From TrEMBL:
InterPro entries associated with the record: ArgE/DapE_CS, Bact_exopeptidase_dim_dom, Peptidase_M20, Peptidase_M20_dimer, Peptidase_M20A
Family annotation (Gene3D superfamilies): 1.10.150.900, 3.30.70.360, Zn peptidases
Lineage: Bacteria, Bacillati, Actinomycetota, Actinomycetes, Micrococcales
Family from the record: Belongs to the peptidase M20A family.
Cofactor(s) annotated in UniProt: Zn(2+)
The protein's name in its UniProt record: M20/M25/M40 family metallo-hydrolase
Domain Peptidase M20 dimerisation: 201-332
Amino acid sequence: MSQPNTAQRLSAAELCARLIRFDTSNYGEGHSAGERDIASWIHASLKHAGYAPQIVGPTPARASVVLRINGKDRSLPALLVHAHTDVVPVEPSQWSVPAFAGHISDGYVWGRGAVDMKDMAAMTLKTLLNWAENGIQPRRDIVVLFVADEESGGEFGATWLVANRPELFAGVEAAIGESGGEAIPLVTSSGETRRFYPVATAERGTLQIRIHATGKAGHGSRPQPGHALQRVIAACDRVNSYEWPLHLTGTVREYIETIDRALGNSPDLSDEEGVTLAIQRLGPAGEVALATTRCTATTTVINAGVKVNVIPSHAEAQLDVRCLPGTENEVIAVLDQLVGDDAEWEFLAKHSPVSAPYPSSWFDAMRDAIQFYDSEAIVPPMCMGGGTDAKAFATLGISGYGFAPLAIDSEGRRPSGMHGADERNPVECINGGQKMLERFLTRV
Ligand SMILES: [Zn+2]
Protein backbone atom coordinates (compact mmCIF):
# COMPACT_ATOMS: atom_id res chain seq x y z
CA MET A 1 0.00 0.00 0.00
CA SER A 2 1.36 3.42 -0.88
CA GLN A 3 1.82 5.69 2.10
CA PRO A 4 -0.82 8.36 2.66
CA ASN A 5 1.88 11.05 2.49
CA THR A 6 2.10 10.38 -1.23
CA ALA A 7 -1.51 11.56 -1.55
CA GLN A 8 -0.46 15.19 -1.76
CA ARG A 9 1.46 14.52 -4.96
CA LEU A 10 -1.41 12.80 -6.76
CA SER A 11 -3.88 14.51 -9.11
CA ALA A 12 -7.59 14.11 -8.40
CA ALA A 13 -7.80 11.38 -11.06
CA GLU A 14 -4.82 9.54 -9.56
CA LEU A 15 -6.38 9.83 -6.11
CA CYS A 16 -9.58 8.36 -7.56
CA ALA A 17 -7.59 5.41 -8.94
CA ARG A 18 -5.94 4.99 -5.53
CA LEU A 19 -9.31 4.90 -3.74
CA ILE A 20 -10.65 2.36 -6.26
CA ARG A 21 -7.90 -0.06 -5.09
CA PHE A 22 -9.79 -0.44 -1.82
CA ASP A 23 -12.47 -3.01 -2.57
CA THR A 24 -15.34 -1.45 -0.64
CA SER A 25 -18.13 -3.64 -2.05
CA ASN A 26 -21.37 -3.26 -0.13
CA TYR A 27 -23.34 -6.52 -0.32
CA GLY A 28 -26.29 -5.24 1.73
CA GLU A 29 -27.80 -6.70 4.89
CA GLY A 30 -24.86 -5.43 6.91
CA HIS A 31 -22.20 -7.14 4.78
CA SER A 32 -19.50 -4.91 3.41
CA ALA A 33 -15.78 -4.89 2.81
CA GLY A 34 -13.03 -2.38 2.97
CA GLU A 35 -14.76 0.64 4.47
CA ARG A 36 -12.44 0.52 7.48
CA ASP A 37 -9.31 0.41 5.29
CA ILE A 38 -10.34 3.27 3.02
CA ALA A 39 -11.37 5.36 6.04
CA SER A 40 -7.97 4.75 7.68
CA TRP A 41 -6.17 5.79 4.51
CA ILE A 42 -8.20 8.97 4.04
CA HIS A 43 -7.84 9.75 7.77
CA ALA A 44 -4.05 9.31 7.60
CA SER A 45 -3.79 11.44 4.42
CA LEU A 46 -5.71 14.27 6.07
CA LYS A 47 -3.70 14.05 9.30
CA HIS A 48 -0.46 14.12 7.35
CA ALA A 49 -1.69 17.34 5.71
CA GLY A 50 -2.24 18.88 9.15
CA TYR A 51 -5.98 18.35 9.63
CA ALA A 52 -7.72 16.76 12.63
CA PRO A 53 -10.22 14.32 11.05
CA GLN A 54 -12.25 11.84 13.13
CA ILE A 55 -13.24 8.27 12.35
CA VAL A 56 -16.89 7.73 13.25
CA GLY A 57 -19.45 4.97 12.83
CA PRO A 58 -21.43 2.27 14.63
CA THR A 59 -18.58 -0.29 14.46
CA PRO A 60 -14.91 -0.13 13.41
CA ALA A 61 -15.77 -2.03 10.21
CA ARG A 62 -18.37 0.53 9.12
CA ALA A 63 -16.11 3.54 9.47
CA SER A 64 -16.73 6.99 8.06
CA VAL A 65 -14.36 9.98 8.20
CA VAL A 66 -15.55 13.44 9.20
CA LEU A 67 -13.70 16.74 9.30
CA ARG A 68 -14.85 20.29 9.99
CA ILE A 69 -12.78 23.09 8.46
CA ASN A 70 -13.37 26.43 10.08
CA GLY A 71 -14.30 29.19 7.69
CA LYS A 72 -13.09 32.79 7.74
CA ASP A 73 -16.57 33.92 8.73
CA ARG A 74 -17.90 31.50 11.31
CA SER A 75 -21.22 33.34 11.54
CA LEU A 76 -22.21 32.00 8.10
CA PRO A 77 -24.23 28.76 7.90
CA ALA A 78 -21.99 25.77 7.26
CA LEU A 79 -21.94 23.55 4.17
CA LEU A 80 -21.71 19.74 4.24
CA VAL A 81 -19.83 17.86 1.49
CA HIS A 82 -20.61 14.14 1.51
CA ALA A 83 -19.11 11.38 -0.61
CA HIS A 84 -19.74 7.70 0.05
CA THR A 85 -16.80 5.32 0.12
CA ASP A 86 -18.71 2.08 -0.52
CA VAL A 87 -19.49 0.73 -3.99
CA VAL A 88 -21.87 -1.84 -5.43
CA PRO A 89 -20.42 -5.33 -6.01
CA VAL A 90 -19.08 -6.39 -9.39
CA GLU A 91 -19.53 -9.37 -11.69
CA PRO A 92 -15.85 -9.80 -12.64
CA SER A 93 -16.66 -11.93 -15.70
CA GLN A 94 -18.43 -8.95 -17.27
CA TRP A 95 -15.41 -6.67 -16.97
CA SER A 96 -12.57 -6.26 -19.47
CA VAL A 97 -10.21 -4.97 -16.71
CA PRO A 98 -9.86 -5.95 -13.03
CA ALA A 99 -12.52 -3.87 -11.24
CA PHE A 100 -10.39 -2.93 -8.23
CA ALA A 101 -6.99 -2.42 -9.87
CA GLY A 102 -7.43 1.35 -10.25
CA HIS A 103 -5.89 1.49 -13.74
CA ILE A 104 -5.45 4.73 -15.63
CA SER A 105 -5.28 4.12 -19.38
CA ASP A 106 -6.62 5.58 -22.64
CA GLY A 107 -7.40 8.78 -20.75
CA TYR A 108 -9.77 7.02 -18.33
CA VAL A 109 -9.70 6.05 -14.69
CA TRP A 110 -11.07 2.49 -14.72
CA GLY A 111 -12.74 0.56 -11.94
CA ARG A 112 -15.70 0.19 -9.63
CA GLY A 113 -16.37 3.57 -8.05
CA ALA A 114 -14.77 5.66 -10.83
CA VAL A 115 -18.17 7.30 -11.35
CA ASP A 116 -20.11 6.33 -8.21
CA MET A 117 -18.50 7.98 -6.37
CA LYS A 118 -14.81 7.71 -5.60
CA ASP A 119 -14.35 10.45 -8.20
CA MET A 120 -16.11 12.92 -5.90
CA ALA A 121 -14.34 11.53 -2.82
CA ALA A 122 -11.02 12.08 -4.62
CA MET A 123 -11.92 15.59 -5.84
CA THR A 124 -12.92 16.53 -2.29
CA LEU A 125 -9.74 15.05 -0.81
CA LYS A 126 -7.63 16.81 -3.43
CA THR A 127 -9.30 20.13 -2.55
CA LEU A 128 -8.49 19.66 1.14
CA LEU A 129 -4.87 18.75 0.35
CA ASN A 130 -4.55 21.82 -1.91
CA TRP A 131 -5.95 24.04 0.83
CA ALA A 132 -3.48 22.64 3.35
CA GLU A 133 -0.56 23.07 0.97
CA ASN A 134 -1.46 26.64 0.02
CA GLY A 135 -2.76 27.83 3.39
CA ILE A 136 -6.26 28.45 2.02
CA GLN A 137 -9.23 28.84 4.36
CA PRO A 138 -12.78 28.63 2.97
CA ARG A 139 -15.23 31.50 3.48
CA ARG A 140 -17.61 29.48 5.66
CA ASP A 141 -17.33 26.30 7.78
CA ILE A 142 -17.15 23.23 5.57
CA VAL A 143 -17.99 19.82 7.06
CA VAL A 144 -16.54 17.03 4.94
CA LEU A 145 -17.86 13.49 5.29
CA PHE A 146 -16.45 10.39 3.61
CA VAL A 147 -19.33 8.11 4.49
CA ALA A 148 -19.93 4.34 4.60
CA ASP A 149 -22.96 2.35 3.49
CA GLU A 150 -24.74 4.60 1.01
CA GLU A 151 -25.34 1.79 -1.43
CA SER A 152 -27.40 -0.15 1.08
CA GLY A 153 -29.48 2.71 2.43
CA GLY A 154 -27.11 4.29 4.97
CA GLU A 155 -28.14 2.38 8.10
CA PHE A 156 -24.44 2.12 9.06
CA GLY A 157 -23.49 5.45 7.49
CA ALA A 158 -25.53 8.62 6.98
CA THR A 159 -28.64 7.45 8.81
CA TRP A 160 -26.58 6.30 11.80
CA LEU A 161 -24.60 9.54 11.93
CA VAL A 162 -27.72 11.69 11.75
CA ALA A 163 -29.31 9.72 14.61
CA ASN A 164 -26.25 9.31 16.79
CA ARG A 165 -23.84 12.17 16.03
CA PRO A 166 -26.06 15.11 15.00
CA GLU A 167 -23.62 17.54 16.67
CA LEU A 168 -21.20 16.91 13.79
CA PHE A 169 -23.64 18.80 11.54
CA ALA A 170 -24.25 21.77 13.85
CA GLY A 171 -24.92 24.95 11.89
CA VAL A 172 -25.06 23.14 8.52
CA GLU A 173 -27.70 24.63 6.22
CA ALA A 174 -26.96 22.97 2.88
CA ALA A 175 -25.13 19.96 1.53
CA ILE A 176 -23.63 18.82 -1.75
CA GLY A 177 -23.34 15.20 -2.79
CA GLU A 178 -23.55 12.89 -5.75
CA SER A 179 -25.42 13.06 -9.07
CA GLY A 180 -25.19 16.55 -10.49
CA GLY A 181 -22.83 18.99 -12.14
CA GLU A 182 -21.64 16.59 -14.85
CA ALA A 183 -20.93 18.13 -18.24
CA ILE A 184 -23.23 16.85 -21.00
CA PRO A 185 -22.37 18.08 -24.51
CA LEU A 186 -25.35 18.23 -26.90
CA VAL A 187 -25.65 19.36 -30.51
CA THR A 188 -28.17 22.09 -31.38
CA SER A 189 -30.57 21.97 -34.33
CA SER A 190 -28.10 24.16 -36.22
CA GLY A 191 -25.19 21.82 -35.58
CA GLU A 192 -23.36 23.65 -32.79
CA THR A 193 -22.35 22.04 -29.51
CA ARG A 194 -23.71 23.34 -26.20
CA ARG A 195 -22.52 22.17 -22.81
CA PHE A 196 -25.01 21.50 -20.00
CA TYR A 197 -24.16 20.88 -16.33
CA PRO A 198 -27.45 19.99 -14.57
CA VAL A 199 -27.28 20.45 -10.80
CA ALA A 200 -29.74 18.40 -8.73
CA THR A 201 -32.11 20.42 -6.57
CA ALA A 202 -34.60 17.60 -5.87
CA GLU A 203 -34.86 13.82 -5.50
CA ARG A 204 -37.82 11.56 -5.95
CA GLY A 205 -38.96 9.82 -2.77
CA THR A 206 -38.24 6.13 -2.20
CA LEU A 207 -41.22 4.15 -0.95
CA GLN A 208 -40.34 0.49 -0.57
CA ILE A 209 -43.47 -1.50 0.07
CA ARG A 210 -44.48 -5.05 0.90
CA ILE A 211 -47.75 -6.56 -0.31
CA HIS A 212 -48.80 -9.75 1.46
CA ALA A 213 -51.73 -12.09 1.91
CA THR A 214 -52.58 -15.16 3.94
CA GLY A 215 -55.08 -17.96 3.30
CA LYS A 216 -55.54 -21.68 3.61
CA ALA A 217 -52.78 -24.06 2.68
CA GLY A 218 -53.87 -27.02 0.61
CA HIS A 219 -53.06 -29.64 -1.97
CA GLY A 220 -51.97 -28.30 -5.33
CA SER A 221 -54.32 -30.77 -7.02
CA ARG A 222 -57.39 -29.12 -5.39
CA PRO A 223 -57.46 -25.59 -6.79
CA GLN A 224 -58.52 -22.83 -4.39
CA PRO A 225 -59.57 -19.81 -6.42
CA GLY A 226 -58.05 -16.65 -4.98
CA HIS A 227 -55.48 -18.27 -2.69
CA ALA A 228 -52.86 -16.09 -1.00
CA LEU A 229 -50.27 -16.20 -3.78
CA GLN A 230 -52.82 -15.51 -6.50
CA ARG A 231 -54.12 -12.49 -4.61
CA VAL A 232 -50.60 -11.08 -4.18
CA ILE A 233 -49.84 -11.63 -7.87
CA ALA A 234 -53.09 -9.92 -8.85
CA ALA A 235 -52.37 -6.94 -6.58
CA CYS A 236 -48.83 -6.60 -8.01
CA ASP A 237 -50.24 -6.82 -11.49
CA ARG A 238 -52.65 -3.96 -10.83
CA VAL A 239 -49.82 -1.81 -9.45
CA ASN A 240 -47.40 -2.72 -12.25
CA SER A 241 -49.86 -1.99 -15.03
CA TYR A 242 -51.18 1.25 -13.55
CA GLU A 243 -50.37 4.23 -15.76
CA TRP A 244 -49.11 6.90 -13.40
CA PRO A 245 -50.17 10.30 -14.69
CA LEU A 246 -47.73 12.79 -16.14
CA HIS A 247 -46.68 15.15 -13.35
CA LEU A 248 -44.20 17.88 -14.22
CA THR A 249 -42.75 19.51 -11.14
CA GLY A 250 -41.32 23.01 -11.55
CA THR A 251 -37.80 21.58 -11.51
CA VAL A 252 -38.46 18.99 -14.21
CA ARG A 253 -40.31 21.51 -16.38
CA GLU A 254 -37.43 24.00 -16.14
CA TYR A 255 -34.89 21.25 -16.83
CA ILE A 256 -36.61 20.16 -20.04
CA GLU A 257 -37.44 23.68 -21.22
CA THR A 258 -33.97 25.15 -20.56
CA ILE A 259 -32.14 22.41 -22.43
CA ASP A 260 -34.60 22.08 -25.29
CA ARG A 261 -34.66 25.86 -25.90
CA ALA A 262 -30.85 26.05 -25.81
CA LEU A 263 -30.84 23.35 -28.49
CA GLY A 264 -32.89 25.67 -30.71
CA ASN A 265 -36.34 24.13 -30.18
CA SER A 266 -39.66 25.45 -28.85
CA PRO A 267 -40.90 22.91 -26.33
CA ASP A 268 -44.63 22.54 -25.76
CA LEU A 269 -45.03 20.77 -22.44
CA SER A 270 -48.80 21.15 -22.25
CA ASP A 271 -49.51 17.50 -23.01
CA GLU A 272 -47.99 14.03 -22.96
CA GLU A 273 -47.05 14.12 -26.64
CA GLY A 274 -45.22 17.44 -26.38
CA VAL A 275 -43.31 16.24 -23.33
CA THR A 276 -42.32 12.99 -25.05
CA LEU A 277 -41.08 14.86 -28.13
CA ALA A 278 -39.10 17.37 -26.06
CA ILE A 279 -37.47 14.59 -24.01
CA GLN A 280 -36.50 12.72 -27.19
CA ARG A 281 -34.73 15.85 -28.45
CA LEU A 282 -32.63 16.00 -25.24
CA GLY A 283 -30.63 12.87 -26.18
CA PRO A 284 -28.59 11.60 -23.22
CA ALA A 285 -29.90 14.48 -21.05
CA GLY A 286 -33.38 13.05 -21.60
CA GLU A 287 -32.76 9.90 -19.57
CA VAL A 288 -33.13 11.55 -16.20
CA ALA A 289 -36.08 13.61 -17.46
CA LEU A 290 -37.87 10.45 -18.53
CA ALA A 291 -37.50 8.98 -15.04
CA THR A 292 -38.86 12.09 -13.36
CA THR A 293 -41.99 13.03 -15.32
CA ARG A 294 -44.15 10.63 -13.31
CA CYS A 295 -44.13 8.30 -10.33
CA THR A 296 -43.09 4.70 -10.91
CA ALA A 297 -43.66 1.34 -9.22
CA THR A 298 -41.82 -1.90 -9.94
CA THR A 299 -42.24 -5.33 -8.36
CA THR A 300 -38.75 -6.56 -7.53
CA VAL A 301 -39.14 -9.47 -5.07
CA ILE A 302 -41.74 -12.19 -4.65
CA ASN A 303 -41.72 -14.84 -1.91
CA ALA A 304 -44.17 -17.71 -1.62
CA GLY A 305 -44.44 -21.45 -1.66
CA VAL A 306 -42.22 -24.36 -0.66
CA LYS A 307 -43.22 -27.12 -3.01
CA VAL A 308 -44.95 -27.42 -6.36
CA ASN A 309 -47.88 -29.50 -5.08
CA VAL A 310 -48.59 -27.34 -2.01
CA ILE A 311 -50.77 -24.24 -2.12
CA PRO A 312 -48.95 -21.76 0.14
CA SER A 313 -50.81 -20.19 3.05
CA HIS A 314 -48.79 -16.99 2.74
CA ALA A 315 -47.30 -14.89 -0.01
CA GLU A 316 -45.50 -11.57 -0.19
CA ALA A 317 -44.05 -9.25 -2.79
CA GLN A 318 -41.80 -6.23 -2.51
CA LEU A 319 -42.09 -3.18 -4.72
CA ASP A 320 -39.85 -0.23 -5.39
CA VAL A 321 -42.05 2.86 -5.65
CA ARG A 322 -40.63 6.30 -6.47
CA CYS A 323 -42.69 9.44 -6.02
CA LEU A 324 -42.08 13.01 -7.10
CA PRO A 325 -41.90 15.92 -4.68
CA GLY A 326 -45.44 16.91 -3.73
CA THR A 327 -47.07 13.60 -4.73
CA GLU A 328 -46.37 11.33 -1.76
CA ASN A 329 -49.87 11.33 -0.23
CA GLU A 330 -51.51 10.93 -3.61
CA VAL A 331 -49.25 7.96 -4.43
CA ILE A 332 -50.05 6.30 -1.10
CA ALA A 333 -53.79 6.69 -1.77
CA VAL A 334 -53.41 5.16 -5.25
CA LEU A 335 -51.45 2.20 -3.83
CA ASP A 336 -54.20 1.64 -1.24
CA GLN A 337 -56.78 1.58 -3.98
CA LEU A 338 -54.80 -0.68 -6.32
CA VAL A 339 -53.97 -3.27 -3.66
CA GLY A 340 -57.58 -3.17 -2.51
CA ASP A 341 -59.08 -5.65 -0.07
CA ASP A 342 -57.41 -8.73 -1.53
CA ALA A 343 -54.11 -8.18 0.25
CA GLU A 344 -52.44 -6.02 2.87
CA TRP A 345 -49.56 -3.68 2.31
CA GLU A 346 -47.10 -1.72 4.41
CA PHE A 347 -43.88 0.23 4.10
CA LEU A 348 -40.51 -1.50 4.31
CA ALA A 349 -38.88 1.93 4.01
CA LYS A 350 -40.34 5.36 3.49
CA HIS A 351 -37.99 8.11 2.45
CA SER A 352 -39.91 11.19 1.40
CA PRO A 353 -38.89 13.17 -1.68
CA VAL A 354 -36.60 16.12 -1.00
CA SER A 355 -36.18 19.52 -2.62
CA ALA A 356 -33.58 22.20 -1.97
CA PRO A 357 -34.22 25.93 -2.40
CA TYR A 358 -34.02 27.08 -6.01
CA PRO A 359 -33.20 29.72 -7.06
CA SER A 360 -30.77 30.20 -4.18
CA SER A 361 -27.37 31.67 -3.42
CA TRP A 362 -26.08 28.07 -3.05
CA PHE A 363 -27.17 27.23 -6.59
CA ASP A 364 -25.75 30.52 -7.92
CA ALA A 365 -22.38 29.72 -6.36
CA MET A 366 -22.31 26.29 -8.03
CA ARG A 367 -23.22 27.79 -11.40
CA ASP A 368 -20.57 30.52 -10.98
CA ALA A 369 -17.87 27.94 -10.20
CA ILE A 370 -18.77 25.93 -13.33
CA GLN A 371 -18.94 29.02 -15.53
CA PHE A 372 -15.60 30.30 -14.27
CA TYR A 373 -13.99 27.33 -16.06
CA ASP A 374 -16.55 27.02 -18.86
CA SER A 375 -17.99 30.45 -19.63
CA GLU A 376 -20.62 29.04 -22.00
CA ALA A 377 -21.89 26.40 -19.59
CA ILE A 378 -25.66 26.16 -19.19
CA VAL A 379 -26.63 25.06 -15.67
CA PRO A 380 -30.26 23.92 -15.30
CA PRO A 381 -31.81 22.49 -12.11
CA MET A 382 -32.52 18.75 -12.16
CA CYS A 383 -34.61 16.24 -10.20
CA MET A 384 -32.90 12.91 -9.53
CA GLY A 385 -34.80 9.75 -10.34
CA GLY A 386 -33.28 7.78 -7.47
CA GLY A 387 -32.17 8.65 -3.97
CA THR A 388 -28.99 9.50 -2.11
CA ASP A 389 -27.81 10.15 1.45
CA ALA A 390 -29.26 13.67 1.02
CA LYS A 391 -32.53 12.22 2.34
CA ALA A 392 -30.90 11.29 5.65
CA PHE A 393 -29.36 14.75 6.04
CA ALA A 394 -32.70 16.36 5.14
CA THR A 395 -34.06 15.02 8.46
CA LEU A 396 -31.71 17.52 10.16
CA GLY A 397 -33.14 20.31 8.02
CA ILE A 398 -30.16 20.29 5.62
CA SER A 399 -30.99 21.18 1.99
CA GLY A 400 -29.25 18.73 -0.33
CA TYR A 401 -27.94 19.57 -3.78
CA GLY A 402 -26.47 17.06 -6.21
CA PHE A 403 -23.19 18.69 -7.19
CA ALA A 404 -20.18 16.50 -7.97
CA PRO A 405 -18.92 18.46 -10.98
CA LEU A 406 -17.23 16.75 -13.90
CA ALA A 407 -15.69 18.87 -16.64
CA ILE A 408 -15.81 18.25 -20.35
CA ASP A 409 -13.44 15.72 -21.93
CA SER A 410 -11.67 17.19 -24.96
CA GLU A 411 -12.65 14.12 -27.01
CA GLY A 412 -16.26 14.34 -25.89
CA ARG A 413 -16.12 11.13 -23.85
CA ARG A 414 -18.34 10.77 -20.82
CA PRO A 415 -18.30 8.72 -17.62
CA SER A 416 -19.94 5.31 -18.02
CA GLY A 417 -20.56 1.91 -16.45
CA MET A 418 -22.07 3.12 -13.18
CA HIS A 419 -23.37 0.06 -11.29
CA GLY A 420 -22.50 -1.97 -14.43
CA ALA A 421 -19.34 -3.34 -16.03
CA ASP A 422 -16.20 -1.40 -17.07
CA GLU A 423 -17.05 1.63 -14.96
CA ARG A 424 -14.75 4.43 -16.10
CA ASN A 425 -14.39 8.18 -15.94
CA PRO A 426 -12.24 10.39 -18.19
CA VAL A 427 -9.18 11.80 -16.40
CA GLU A 428 -9.92 15.27 -17.79
CA CYS A 429 -13.48 15.20 -16.41
CA ILE A 430 -12.22 14.44 -12.90
CA ASN A 431 -9.28 16.86 -12.86
CA GLY A 432 -11.36 19.66 -14.42
CA GLY A 433 -14.27 18.91 -12.09
CA GLN A 434 -11.97 19.14 -9.07
CA LYS A 435 -11.08 22.72 -10.02
CA MET A 436 -14.77 23.63 -10.19
CA LEU A 437 -15.41 21.97 -6.85
CA GLU A 438 -12.45 23.70 -5.21
CA ARG A 439 -13.51 27.10 -6.47
CA PHE A 440 -17.05 26.54 -5.20
CA LEU A 441 -15.96 25.29 -1.76
CA THR A 442 -13.46 28.10 -1.29
CA ARG A 443 -15.82 30.93 -2.27
CA VAL A 444 -19.33 29.79 -1.38
ZN1 LIG B 1 -23.55 6.71 -5.31
